[in-house]
């Protein structure tokens, strides 16, 4: 199995695609709510949260692998078993495990204590040791309401998700540092990225601020929902994060130096998956 060192992002209608500091192309267009792209063994896998689908693009043809009505397919992660963990972001969230053909193997609707994933599961990341973290978003309304975002953890070999952090302001994208010691998570309404220390048992500690995005780059619009969305960490430890209503993708150094890559307005009003080669 080969996972290419290419950063892929799903870019919604609010985002655009002329990169100021990287070679970028649009490779798949007209997707209904693109999210969670993964490039595995020469194929691109991505989801559509509006269409409730997981699709595969082999460079020529797009094939729908999974359609689960009411899921709202969102974050997508590849496990050590070469299966997918898929985030269902609808209000009563769920986490699905699928094989590479899109067949459902397992579904979780609640954590170890029976607490349902109200607010929807937004994103998932798998760690080097085979564990996984997922974010619970919060109630999506015209204006944000309750601050109920959470982070869940599934240890390798476990069958139950446990809650490891709470009270996040609409937890969204999630990523792990290259040394596997730090967990990054987007707070969409807070327009910031938090970081946690990852303990040996998968629990989290030392919650702290990592980046406040409006201090790295001026907001293009003013909105409750401008903040960070999807997140990827590249082979050098840099963090790529999309601003949902902000019309940008930012590249941020793990050391918080003001290094960023902004995407501007050439693909506005289109739903696309775009790629950058990492340097």
Notes on the protein architecture:
1% of the residues lie in helices and 50% in strands. The chain has 279 residues and is an all-beta fold. The protein has one domain: Neuraminidase (6 Propeller). The strands form seven sheets. Strands 8, 9, 10, 11 and 12 form a five-stranded antiparallel sheet that branches. A four-stranded antiparallel sheet has the order 4-5-6-7, with no helix packed on it. Strands 13-14-15-16 form a four-stranded antiparallel sheet, with no helix packed on it. The protein starts with 5 loop residues before the first strand and ends with a strand. It has one helix spanning 213-216, and strands at 6-11, 18-19, 24-29, 34-40, 43-48, 53-57, 62-67, 73-78, 84-88, 92-98, 104-108, 117-118, 121-126, 132-136, 149-154, 162-168, 171-176, 182-187, 192-198, 204-212, 228-233, 239-243, 248-252, 263-264, 272-277.
Count of helical segments?
Answer: 1
Q: What is the succession of H and E elements? A: EEEEEEEEEEEEEEEEEEEEHEEEEE
Shape: globular
- Could you tell me the CATH topology label: Neuraminidase
What kind of oligomer do you see? Answer: single chain
Strand content: over 45%
Q: Determine Rg (CA atoms, Å).
A: 17 Å
Q: What value does the average pLDDT take?
A: 85
Distance between the termini: 22 Å
CATH class: Mainly Beta
Largest sheet: 5 strands, antiparallel
Helical/strand content category: mainly beta
The CATH architecture is 6 Propeller
Overall number of domains: 1
Helix content: under 10%
CATH superfamily label:
TolB, C-terminal domain
Give unreliable regions as ranges: 1-6, 11-21, 263-272
Question: Count the strands?
Answer: 25
